User: Fold these one by one.
Assistant:
Number 1:
Amino acid sequence: MYEKNLKLVMMNKDLRKDLLFILCEECGEVVQGISKCERFGYENRHRSDFTNAEKVGLEMADLIAVYEMLVDEGVFPKVEDDVMRERIANKKEKVLRLFKDF
């Protein structure tokens, strides 16, 4: 399986490179959206049908879509659902512990 994924990465160098740049851009758009939430308010709808908070959610969907495309191209390994769920649960627990200490 690894060899097959490696071949996909090699065959689609331009697509791989473009998707990695797009992933970087999407990360930046999520950060920018969070900044706008803090600066202008989560419910602010500056020239949009969506609130700033909703825009962050939409940008997260875009980021996940591009990440999944990179997984499909064999650039990143697919993380099994149970591993992903466990990691998410552990992260939530860790973050909540941090806040309890304050």
Number 2:
Amino acid sequence: MPQHLPSVEYLHKILRCEPDTGKLFWRERTPDMFSDVDPEHRQAKCEQWNAKYANRPALYMLRNKYFVGRIDGVVHYAHKVLFAMYYNRWPTGKVRHLNTDTTDNRRKNLHEIPRPEIEIRQDEDGQGWTIGFKPRYTTRRPVLYTGR
């Protein structure tokens, strides 16, 4: 199932990363970032959001030994988001932690392992990216009938 990936520019707009510690923090938001809210309530929603989340840790919930969190309602792994922010592109392969500590998301600890069966395409509107698996075709050897 394809997963929608936000653009790297959007990640830099909403998140602040510390490459030396591998931590993510929410940036303050502006009223125009709440387009799903009525225009007369955007300022109040923005102030409410900033009071609750701005400059606080982001994507820090531990799940299966990895930090995860939601961006616009979609769960993302922190190490993949950080890789995208560090290198200004989403990884096309698997992101590996060099010291095997999956909670250590410092820039020098993240390494990409290419995986050719993964396909990443830009969305039609140019706002984000879609990741999905290419179909894997295998050839089978025919079964020979021996007459038994």
Number 3:
Amino acid sequence: MKLKTRYEEMSQPGALDSYNNFVGQDDDYRDWYGVLGRSRDSGPLEESNFEVALAQLGGESEDVRVERYGHWGVGWVEGIYVRPGSQALAVAEEIAKCLEEFPALDDEDFARRHQEEVQRIWARMSDRQRAEHFSAHRQDWVVRGLWDLIGGVVYGEFYGGLPYESTESLVATY
């Protein structure tokens, strides 16, 4: 994946928006390279990759900026940008290369964030929704006894389904 400059990203309709719709101070960052972005609607994978990439780049600095914008469609948008010719650009290119080969920069961080999201969704679901999901994915659950079943399904204290496919259907549905 070739990194694009901020100007290239925003000159092509689609991703974030375009310079035609940009209202704000542009400063002189048009030639900086975009690494990753996230928005209010980002899921655990985008959140994980954004935070891990920012950490790998050493956080915000003279060579690494996090640009933040309000956006009409998704509420807000953030993007990580690196200075051309900097050491951070070499790290950003390595990050892009890693993401071509595998979708998560850090499996453990992504898995933790995904599980936290599943737990939040599970706790907000109604008793009926939890019971329906449990019935549809009963084979995926680890239940050690009646109290696990009551605590998990009836009270929503924890999500007891293990396989990723089952949790993905939960995130996609609710």
Number 4:
Amino acid sequence: MGTKERNVAARKRRTRKKDPRLARAKVAGFNKPRKTPGHPKKSHIVVAKVGEKVKTIRFGQQGAKTAGKPKAGESEAMKRKRASFKARHAKNIAKGKMSAAYWADKVKW
């Protein structure tokens, strides 16, 4: 086998097939959430990956008026709403990237 054939064989071994879950979820990559306006219940989807574990997670209530990121001059009611969400879901948020609460906290709150 010549050098050229060896290089082609090595290149074929290095290329990996793209995970079909990424295409099915229509996301840019692992741990990259996107909105799902057509879904009846959940507002976002992400294909979470930690080490070798991969999991498709749908999260967030469709149509919910969440607090979003803190804004200058934000009302006290919105601050309390955000704090309540984080306190209520703290245990699940702490589980990390493989939990819906983590992604809801990161993206929506």
